[in-house]
TrEMBL record:
Pfam families: TAF1_subA
Domain of life of the source: Eukaryota
GO cellular component terms attached to this protein's record: RNA polymerase I transcription regulator complex
Protein name, UniProt field: TAF1A polymerase
Gene Ontology BP, a term: transcription by RNA polymerase I
Transmembrane segments: none
Gene name linked to the record: Taf1a
């Protein structure tokens, strides 16, 4: 019967898709291609109306296979993408974008630009309005390629030496790229979203031509507009811009404070800690201790000598002055159950000593203060340092032994 035929067809189609999925997961690209061919041939009898149509299935699966297949060529990929563009107008611009990405990955910049220009001129009734966001992306990526061309021309002109922009034709061409890039980049960053590469390029254009106020406005909007998703890079770009402009430490600290709240493990936390430690305000120095402790909570910082040096310096200052020991105690209370195994084991002491003696010195100082002179890490490193007759390790041992009562106050 007709219903039985449709049911059997549906089962066989689902089985075919399952085989394709299995082949993709196992990276069996040839096998996946064979099953996809069967799937495509069987679709001539498919009259179902699924939410995700067959053409999208073919596009997504076929692209993945051609990207990885050892025998696929750029010519085949281009031909496939052109076919996909004609299968459904609803996905036309998305397919164009993916085609452009593939061309860029293969270094075919001129071909990518040509495809973007063709896509930008595409019109199809109401679909043009529906795909407004995709069209803006098309324009934005064209602006990005215009920026790349502008950057190349800029470098050519700057290489001419002290006589400046000697080649008028090249300079005019560069300004032409600037105008085209600026228009498209400015439009995309008005839309709430994560536009890191576009923002960076647009700000670079503005700074080169001395429009620092516009650059500042763009970065502030990108970082602080509540309509945009939380984005650590937005605050990094703002901080870097403020630093280039020689802004006050207050402005720099303000930018990094928000970055710390979002990503306490960011590499700029060392800069943040350094600025806070130089402050005369007790509140900021207290925050500096919190910042460096928080950064060292993450595995990626375990062997960061600069971070341990920052912590060791501040802890040592507090111990010598015997002021604000409560700061250390507050930070240590939430970590004393897991930091000893995480940072101060005998195994780590041995490895750190072998690989980086400066790191082991800084960590041993912190370990000795936080865990006392009987700490495994401190005992091993100080013993090895004294055995090697290194003066600063002998001084380290004396310092920790002399201030061992501080450990009792912190741990108590």
């Amino acid at each position: 019967s007709s219903n039985e035929h449709k049911l059997n067809f549906k089962k066989s189609k689902e089985a075919c898709l399952s085989y394709i999925q299995d082949a993709l997961l196992q990276k069996q690209w040839k096998r996946a291609a064979e099953f996809l061919t069967c799937y495509v041939e069987s679709l001539e009898k498919d009259y179902s109306r699924e939410h995700i149509g067959p053409s999208e299935m073919i596009w997504r699966i076929g692209t993945e296979i051609l990207w990885h297949h050892s025998q696929s060529s750029m010519k085949e990929f281009n031909c496939f993408m052109e076919q996909m563009k004609t299968l459904g107008v609803k996905r036309y611009l998305k397919v164009c974008l993916e085609h452009v990405f593939h061309l860029l990955c293969n270094g075919q910049i001129d071909e990518a630009y040509q495809n973007l220009s063709l896509a930008e001129s595409w019109r199809f009734g109401e679909q043009t309005a529906i795909q407004d966001k995709e069209m803006k992306l098309i324009q934005a990526y064209r602006g990005l390629l215009d920026y790349c061309s502008w950057s190349k021309q800029k470098n050519i002109l700057l290489e001419h030496g002290e006589d400046g922009f000697a080649d008028l034709a090249v300079e005019q061409e560069m300004h032409g790229y600037f105008r085209k890039a600026a228009v498209n980049l400015k439009e995309i960053i008005k839309i709430p979203g994560v536009w890191d590469v576009f923002v960076k390029c647009y700000v670079d254009l503005l700074e080169f031509y001395g429009d620092h106020n516009e650059a500042r406005q763009v970065l502030n909007e990108y970082a602080y507009n509540s309509k945009f998703p939380a984005n650590p890079n937005a605050h990094v770009y703002l901080y870097q811009f403020l630093k280039r402009q020689g802004e006050s430490k207050k402005s720099l600290i303000s930018a990094l404070k928000i970055l710390h709240d979002i990503v306490p493990s960011h590499e700029l936390m060392i800069d943040f800690n350094t600025m806070l430690q130089k402050s005369k305000k007790r509140k900021k120095r207290r925050l500096g201790l919190e910042v460096i402790f928080a950064a060292l909570d993450y595995a990626g910082w375990k062997e960061n000598a600069k971070a341990w040096s920052c912590l060791a310096r501040q802890v040592k200052q507090i111990v010598i002055s015997e002021k604000h020991l409560d700061w250390i105690k507050q930070e240590w209370n939430s970590r004393k159950d897991w930091w000893p195994a995480f940072h101060f084991s005998r195994y780590l002491a041995k490895r750190n000593w072998q690989e980086n003696k400066s790191l082991s010195y800084e960590k041993a100082l912190v370990a000795g203060i936080l865990l006392g002179k009987d700490c495994k890490y401190f005992k091993y490193v100080s013993h090895q340092g004294c055995k090697a007759q290194l003066k600063r390790f002998r001084m380290l041992k004396k310092f920790v032994t002399r201030h061992n009562p501080v450990y009792l106050r912190i741990s108590g």
